[in-house]
Recover the amino acids of this structure.
């Protein structure tokens, strides 16, 4: 773990080495943040609540992609395909067998894990660009299979799914969804955080750094890569299944290549190799189109340009992505870290050389 | 017979698009996923010049071709030179982001209506007989254009000083730069040529089927053909296009028309499993595990 930030904090027990929150200030901040998260749905309007739900939902997939690309270093352009696989598993099981959510979610995870092996097998032979291309090809095949199912079974506009039920209680209210999604997102984040500190996570980083060295250190590169794909894909498929329930609707059109690009943009804009980055990036990418629309409305352009709002969104999104790639490759996390450093080191500008 | 003609036309579409992927990859090791959008931009260039010079169709075509060259060089000068030497992922993502930006801007500038540049040029797409089959005028132009482009590119790369520099830059950029080859100039030229050839494909497809958003999908579908042939081989791109087009036309004809969108990617996966570096690609270039 990183060195404690506050001065005067010394670790005296081994348990302190394992703690996620070390200092009192950190604990207080975390508590305040938790209270804020819990209070949010009662303060926010319906649109803000829906946005928060989307961010939480997106963060699950983004964290999964961050594990794979940001930490294990395996480029994947098939993320929308995996989300679609999860969503379609849920949709098909519901339509064909009437399965409840406690069957469809694990089933989606299983399908995701299986697909993760399929997506990951090329990574044993291919690297970099070629790997990205093979995942891209798999994306198209998964989407095609989903669309094929839709047309064959006569759900040409999409599959409608009932909301999940526990006894008589139906999960339909946006506020209830918020807490369910919050629980999933936090559990996922905690899982990722702890996984990255374990042997598996360290092996992924070693594979990312240099495969030959990782092999020499006794890490099975093959197993590490496949594990990265399987874990990431299973989480992504669960996110896809949740997405299907949240929307109440599954359709192959929703999982275009653009969705993959959005997820990749989340981890790029957030900052590679940081879970905080994945969450920040998700918030940025999710809120961005709404912010653009609000800006257009303020400028009085929305009425005149209502038919092309999506085009403005597209162009602005591409532009922002380019600006981040060119001028801030560290992403939002890079900015955040610079701000932190500035306050930590004040009145100095640089860390002392001897540390 | 008609099947052969269909394969030939589809293969030349793919081949014409592919050589853009191959040119850029071979010279600068960047995979341009904005190729489809650049194609479309060039096609819109033709649409614009066609209405501007409606009296002189040939002039309109020439200006549109010049525009495509300029756009390619401008893309490099404005954006991609910053990505020289960056990681593979960053460069590919930059092209993806560029593609999204261009797509948005094109809808803003030209709307979403399907346009017919051929009609604006005042030409008709007459079809004529080849043996027992029929081929449209634009289809014939595609086959002819592909042959000309590939002939020209081979002559350029083998026979001229600039072609030699381009090959040198592709083989060993550091050494080439130290021997006085101006890498940025070479890379810009590669982008210009790639956009020109892709733009040619885009214009011809737009003439044939109308100009609309699906053009981008065709650009992406051609990409597997480049990989099947080997990403750094022009000859490979030609043969890969034939294979992918052949598989696509035959499968559509004999099995299922709905397969057309996935066939190229299935062929691509098979190729990646069997021979990841492609039919004619250089093997040592592939960073193998």
């Amino acid at each position: 773990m990183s060195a404690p930030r506050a001065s005067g904090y010394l670790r005296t027990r081994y348990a302190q080495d394992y703690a996620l929150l070390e200092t009192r200030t950190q604990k207080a901040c975390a508590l305040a943040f938790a209270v804020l998260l819990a209070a949010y749905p009662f303060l926010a309007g319906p649109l803000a609540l829906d946005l928060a739900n989307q961010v939480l939902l997106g963060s699950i997939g983004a964290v999964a992609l961050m594990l794979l690309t940001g930490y294990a270093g395996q480029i994947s352009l098939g993320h929308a395909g995996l989300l679609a696989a999860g969503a379609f598993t849920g949709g098909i099981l519901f339509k064909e067998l009437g399965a409840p959510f406690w069957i469809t979610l694990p089933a989606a995870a299983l399908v995701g894990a299986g697909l993760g092996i399929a997506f990951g097998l090329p990574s044993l032979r291919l690297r970099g660009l070629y790997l990205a291309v093979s995942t891209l090809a798999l994306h198209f095949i998964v989407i095609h299979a989903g669309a094929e199912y839709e047309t064959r079974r006569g759900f040409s506009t999409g599959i409608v799914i009932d909301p999940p039920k526990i006894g008589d209680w139906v999960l339909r209210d946006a506020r209830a969804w918020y807490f369910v999604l919050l629980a999933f997102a936090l559990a996922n984040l905690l899982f990722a955080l702890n996984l990255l500190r374990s042997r598996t996570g360290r092996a992924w980083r070693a594979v990312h750094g240099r495969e030959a060295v990782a092999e020499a250190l006794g890490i099975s590169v093959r197993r590490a890569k496949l594990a990265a794909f399987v874990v990431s894909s299973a989480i992504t498929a669960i996110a896809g299944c949740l997405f299907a329930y949240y929307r109440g609707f599954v359709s192959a059109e929703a999982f275009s290549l653009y969705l993959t690009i959005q997820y990749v943009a989340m981890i790029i804009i957030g900052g590679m190799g940081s879970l905080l980055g994945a969450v920040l990036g998700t918030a940025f990418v999710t809120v961005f189109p709404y912010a653009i629309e609000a800006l257009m409305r303020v400028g009085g352009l929305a009425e005149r340009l209502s038919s092309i709002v999506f085009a403005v969104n597209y162009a602005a999104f591409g532009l922002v992505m380019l600006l981040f790639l060119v001028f801030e490759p560290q992403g939002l996390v890079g900015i955040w870290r610079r701000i932190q450093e500035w306050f930590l080191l004040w009145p100095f500008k640089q860390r002392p050389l001897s540390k | 017979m008609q099947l052969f003609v269909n394969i030939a036309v589809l293969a030349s579409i793919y081949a014409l698009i592919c050589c853009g992927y191959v040119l850029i990859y071979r010279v600068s090791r960047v995979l341009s996923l904005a190729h489809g959008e650049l194609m479309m931009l060039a096609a819109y260039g033709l649409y614009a010049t066609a209405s501007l010079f409606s009296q002189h169709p040939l002039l309109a075509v020439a200006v549109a071709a010049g525009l495509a060259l300029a756009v390619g060089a401008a893309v490099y000068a404005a954006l991609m030179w910053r990505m020289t030497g960056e990681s593979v992922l960053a460069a590919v993502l930059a092209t993806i982001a560029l593609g999204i930006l261009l797509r948005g801007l094109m809808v803003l500038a030209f709307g979403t209506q399907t346009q017919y540049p051929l009609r604006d040029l005042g030409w008709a797409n007459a079809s004529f007989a080849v043996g027992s089959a029929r081929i449209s005028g634009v289809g014939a132009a595609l086959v002819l254009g592909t042959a000309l482009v590939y002939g020209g590119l081979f002559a350029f790369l083998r026979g001229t000083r600039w072609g030699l520099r381009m090959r040198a830059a592709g083989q060993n950029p550091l050494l080439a730069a130290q021997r006085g080859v101006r890498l940025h100039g070479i890379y810009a030229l590669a982008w210009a040529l790639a956009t020109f050839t892709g733009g040619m494909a885009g214009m011809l497809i737009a003439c044939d089927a109308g100009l609309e958003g699906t053009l981008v999908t065709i650009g992406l579908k051609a990409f597997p053909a480049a990989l099947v042939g080997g990403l750094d081989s022009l000859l490979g791109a030609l043969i890969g296009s034939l294979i992918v087009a052949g598989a696509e036309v035959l499968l559509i004809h004999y099995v299922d028309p709905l397969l057309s969108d996935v066939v190229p990617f299935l062929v691509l996966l098979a190729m990646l499993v069997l021979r990841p570096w492609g039919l004619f690609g250089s093997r040592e270039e592939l960073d193998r595990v």
